[in-house]
Design a protein that fits this description.
Layout lengths: L1 H15 L20 E6 L2 H18 L3 E6 L1 H14 L6 E5 L2 H7 L7 H6 L10 H6 L10 E6 L1 E6 H6 L10 H11 L20 H10 L16 H17 L9 H9 L5 E5 L3 H4 L10 E5 L12 E7 L6 H11 L2 H10 L11 H5 L1 H6 L4 H9 L25 H16 L5 H15 L7
Parallel strand pairs: 1-2, 1-3
Antiparallel strand pairs: 3-8, 4-8, 5-6, 5-7
Helix pairs in contact: 9-10, 18-19
């Protein structure tokens, strides 16, 4: 309680000095009651845990009540886009990603957080991974969000099935090695060789596909914003991914996103899975049929040394919010070392939101609980592919699993649908990419001055 009062006092002092945001609302409205906060977030285990702990700890300490709206990712993003674009102010805080922050901040939809971070010494912003801090900083150099959790990507494999077939996973596998292993382990104990996202969506199948494109030497655009989706490198990458899924992937792959393939892997139906590091806690949870049977290695690569993605779900404050001080109190708590400690003690260390702070990986309790994967998780979070230059080909955009341009939300979804149709066998990869090339070329006409 003392810490929160000190933070409020520090923020108030900063405001007097003229450093706090224009339009910042009072934490205490008339009548002396704390302002309620409305928070929009994706419905994942980390936010479900947060919601359960908020009233008992955050509200009890600060008096600030929080109303959560938790939705599936696509629905949450659609609602957030609508509310922030119009500055309706329905939500004070939302879980924004590394994709939204540059776009939202450039449009003035997010409130800068620098003055709050400066005043809140106990928050220890320097403990946050530098690459995440960079991804949440706008072109103007201001900070616009704090990470709730971060993630990279890695390859997960069934050590028991590999031993049964006499197979060895290389410590830093190439995609060709993964394809060979998938063919050899496919069918062992009824498991598919590998599970990969096939469901349409720029945040679904395109997230892993883009890492394959990058490491195979492809890029969506050249430096003049001409689409390159029919280039030999791009075709090779997408063809490889589609062929791998069709030959040795899970049945019905075109209908399966991250949650569906996680369920399959946990149920023992996959020998390998390439996906987010944040899934490891579910794989090793009590009740998982593969707990203690899984190995973890870096994201597979081809022409580059690194191929994993970098992602974060972070807390941002809507510029139109009348409760910015209270909103920072919430962010300071939900993204803090203390909150990670709380989850570790109350729920279990493997449930703590990870991939965002250095101190978590130095914690012996987390090291013990996450012993199977925390080293690879740390490496993936701190040493992923470079978002500014994740591949071989030069490109005019940033991003690893996505393109950092506003048009990508619509374009990426449209292209992902074409690739999903190829995964389903409804059209060839060449046909899918021919159609996608036209979509990509049209999407960036304004960048070419057309």
């Amino acid at each position: 309680m003392k810490r929160r009062r000190l933070v409020r006092a520090a923020v108030a002092a900063t405001a007097v000095a003229g450093l706090v945001l224009v339009g910042c609302g009072d934490t205490d409205p008339p009548g002396g009651e704390q302002a309620d906060l409305s928070v929009l977030a994706t419905d994942v285990p980390q936010t479900e845990t947060l919601e359960k702990l908020t009233k008992r700890y955050f509200t009890a300490e600060t008096g600030i009540t929080v109303d959560y709206t938790l939705l599936p990712e696509n629905e949450a993003r659609e609602r957030m886009n609508r509310d922030f674009a119009t500055q309706a102010g329905t939500y004070d805080v939302a879980s924004v990603s590394a994709y939204e922050v540059p776009i939202y901040s450039d449009n003035g939809w997010l409130a800068p957080l620098d003055s709050y971070v400066k005043a809140d010494k106990d928050f220890d912003h320097d403990d946050v991974f530098p690459n995440l801090r960079s991804s949440l900083t706008g072109e103007d150099g201001k900070l616009y969000a704090e990470p709730f959790y971060g993630e990279g990507s890695f390859l997960m494999y069934r050590k028991d099935l590999f031993r049964k077939d006499g197979l060895t996973m290389p410590p830093n596998p190439t995609w060709d090695q993964v394809a060979d292993l998938a063919a050899r382990v496919d069918g062992t104990d009824g498991a598919s060789g590998i599970c990969l996202r096939g469901l349409p969506g720029w945040g679904q199948n395109l997230a892993p596909i883009n890492t394959v494109v990058n490491t195979f030497g492809g890029a969506w655009y050249d430096m003049d914003w001409n689409a390159r989706l029919t280039s030999p490198e791009f075709k090779k990458a997408v063809g490889f991914y589609v062929d791998l899924l069709r030959s040795h992937g899970q049945p019905g792959a075109e209908r399966m996103g991250v949650l569906e393939i996680l369920d399959s892997f946990v149920a023992g139906k996959c020998a390998m899975m390439y996906d987010a590091t944040s899934l490891a806690s579910s794989i090793e949870a009590d009740g998982s049929s593969v707990k203690g049977k899984v190995g973890y290695v870096p994201a597979p690569h081809d022409r580059t040394e690194k191929a994993g993605w970098l992602w974060t779900w972070a807390w941002g404050i809507q510029q139109a919010s009348d409760n910015k001080d209270a909103a920072w109190e919430f962010i300071s708590w939900a993204s803090s070392k203390e909150y990670q400690e709380l989850v570790g003690q109350e729920v279990g260390w493997t449930a703590a939101p990870a991939g965002n702070r250095k101190s978590l990986y130095a914690n012996p309790e987390y090291q013990q609980a996450a012993g199977a994967w925390y080293r690879q998780e740390y490496t993936a979070a701190t040493d992923s592919a470079d978002p500014k230059n994740p591949g071989v080909a030069p490109r005019p955009y940033t991003g690893i699993g996505f393109l950092g341009i506003p048009e990508f939300a619509v374009l990426g979804t449209a292209v992902s649908e074409q690739i999903a149709a190829a995964i389903a066998g409804q059209q060839s990869v060449d046909t899918a990419l021919d159609k996608s090339q036209d979509l990509a070329q049209a999407a960036t006409a304004k960048y070419r001055g057309e």
